[in-house]
Amino acid sequence: MTEEIFECMRESKTVRNFRQDPITDESLAKLIEAACWAPSAGNLQPWFFYVVKNEKVKQRLAAVCTDQPQVAEAPVAIVVMADPAKSNEKYGERGAQLYCLQDTAAAAENLLLAAESMGLATCWVGSFDEPQVQKLVEAPPRLRAVAIICVGYSDQQISSPKERLRVAEVTKIIH
């Protein structure tokens, strides 16, 4: 691994205050491409992305999120969806209940890291009324909302590096 990816992980921050500078379609396409390079069980790629730029839809999305005004304030909100049925076809209930969510979370993380590397700021929002989000983006019933990723340019002070538990605190090596 290169030091660049580690630096990207260390430097990434959750941002809740965004400038209103637009995000280009080219940049958004690169973010989604990065998300699509995530690993997935059986290479099923059980994800779908709704890229929301519409101000009214972002306002409605923010209204069904728990105290998350940045959903409306960010230039773009990306609703990351999982397709449990796709994973169920190959892996049964475990695929539908777990693998598709793991796969989709990996895709969301790729998107976050790509945004950081491109100088974009993000905020992962997980607290929302799932059926309402699904309805607002007009997703088919088979899809499940996993996250909303706010994307834009930061309009807040750069904070100190995030604190993390030491490796020894979260690791047990079994020989």
UniProtKB/TrEMBL annotation:
Gene3D superfamilies: NADH Oxidase. Keywords: Flavoprotein, FMN, Oxidoreductase. Its cofactor is FMN. Coiled coil: none annotated. Residues 109-172 form the Putative nitroreductase TM1586 domain. Residues 13-73 form the Nitroreductase domain. It comes from the Bacteria. One of its GO terms (molecular function) is oxidoreductase activity. PANTHER family: NAD(P)H NITROREDUCTASE YDGI-RELATED (PTHR43673), NITROREDUCTASE (PTHR43673:SF2). Belongs to the nitroreductase family. This is Nitroreductase. It comes from Propionispora vibrioides.
